[in-house]
């Protein structure tokens, strides 16, 4: 079992890179002719040149140093050791980095705003690969402000709160695609932010198997004028854990369905003299045949069962096309609480203990 802590334990940034990016080759060394100037982050009045994997950036060392104590120390060393002319570019000192150029571009969007650049609090333009790049670079260059903002975005969406998850209030500012949880899991492991894991694993476990195995293509930079892509996939150990969760969710979904549709017949307030009980049993039968929105053999165990009660989904053979108002109200209350119970089990299904998991429900 792992226990959630709030510490910023410094795991290896390569852990996230290994899970989401191809291995980097050796860093080429050389002068201006050996590196391609970045088309966005080459400022003619810049005073430091950074060369990363054959791409050169001419930027402002003062702004970089303001955000990163590691860059600040690096520049002090470079300043104290004058470089030969062949190792400077237009009089600017050169610093070689082994980071992916695309990661540096994501960082520079915030430190050196361009006309089309963004701020981290402008949700529609945020994406998971941008957040991952900031986290990777934080672990190397110590960028606490951007780190905190990036983790805040992830923690809000991959919430610990059941009500926020099912009501969608976790996604008011940012909604990544379900497959992007692959990267969220890598970030959670890297930063020891384990509270992200249950919701992220849940999203992946509900995807079609072929989509889960394929992963997704993410930008890796440019080759000439053409963008290059890399595939993000779950490491094998995380994939096996996700498949185990998928099986457990299907079992919980079936258990919930039988408890909801078959267990108590009708409440005393039923206005149809028990006909609602027959209606619910018929719904269970059709859900088992995959003919309703929420089916039995589904891993989406947190989805609502209420759409199954809509009249347009009731087969014509049903004698009663809907339940009475009192039975529907009783059903809605019970099914939400049963889904909450499934939510509360998520950390345990992953072998985790998450402090404060669904704490808001206990206070309600």
TrEMBL record:
CDD domains registered for this protein in UniProt: BTB_POZ_ZBTB_KLHL-like
Domain (BTB): residue spans on this chain: 46-120
Domain of life from the UniProt record: Eukaryota
Cross-referenced Pfam families: BTB
Disordered: annotated span: 1-34
Database matches in SMART domains: BTB
UniProt signal peptide: none
UniProt cross-references to InterPro entries, sorted A to Z: BTB/POZ_dom, SKP1/BTB/POZ_sf
Annotated protein name in UniProt: BTB domain-containing protein
Originating species: Trametes cubensis
Lineage: Eukaryota, Fungi, Dikarya, Basidiomycota, Agaricomycotina
């Amino acid at each position: 079992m792992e226990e959630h802590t709030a510490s910023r334990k410094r795991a290896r940034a390569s852990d996230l890179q290994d899970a989401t990016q191809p291995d980097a080759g050796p860093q080429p060394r050389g002068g201006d002719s050996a590196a391609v100037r970045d088309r966005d982050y080459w400022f003619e009045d810049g005073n430091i040149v950074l060369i990363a994997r054959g791409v050169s950036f001419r930027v402002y060392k003062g702004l970089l140093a303001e955000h990163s104590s590691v860059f600040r120390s690096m520049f002090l060393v470079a300043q104290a050791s004058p470089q030969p002319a062949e190792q400077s570019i237009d009089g600017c000192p050169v610093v070689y980095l082994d980071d992916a150029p695309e990661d540096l571009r994501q960082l520079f969007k915030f430190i050196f705003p361009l006309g089309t650049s963004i701020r981290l609090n402008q949700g529609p333009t945020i994406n998971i690969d941008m957040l991952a790049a900031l986290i990777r670079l934080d672990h190397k260059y110590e960028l606490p402000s951007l780190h905190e903002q990036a983790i805040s975005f992830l923690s809000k969406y991959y919430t610990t709160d059941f009500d926020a998850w099912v009501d969608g209030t976790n996604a008011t500012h940012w909604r990544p695609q379900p497959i992007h949880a692959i990267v969220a899991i890598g970030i959670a492991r890297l930063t020891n932010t384990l509270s992200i894991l249950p919701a992220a694993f849940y999203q992946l476990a509900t995807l079609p198997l072929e989509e889960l195995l394929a992963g997704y293509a993410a930008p890796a930079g440019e080759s000439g004028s053409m963008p290059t892509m890399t595939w993000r996939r779950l490491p094998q150990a995380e994939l096996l854990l996700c498949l185990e969760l998928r099986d457990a969710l299907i079992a919980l979904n079936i258990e919930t369905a039988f408890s909801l549709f078959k267990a108590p017949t009708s409440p005393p307030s039923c206005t149809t003299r028990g006909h609602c009980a027959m209606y619910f049993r018929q719904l269970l039968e059709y859900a088992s045949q995959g003919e309703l929105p929420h089916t039995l053999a589904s891993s989406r165990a947190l989805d609502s069962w209420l759409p199954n009660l809509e009249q347009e989904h009731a087969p014509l053979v049903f004698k009663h096309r809907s339940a009475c108002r009192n039975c529907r109200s009783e059903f809605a209350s019970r099914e939400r609480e049963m889904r909450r119970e499934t939510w509360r089990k998520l950390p345990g299904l992953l072998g985790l203990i998450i402090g404060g998991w669904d704490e808001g429900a206990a206070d309600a």
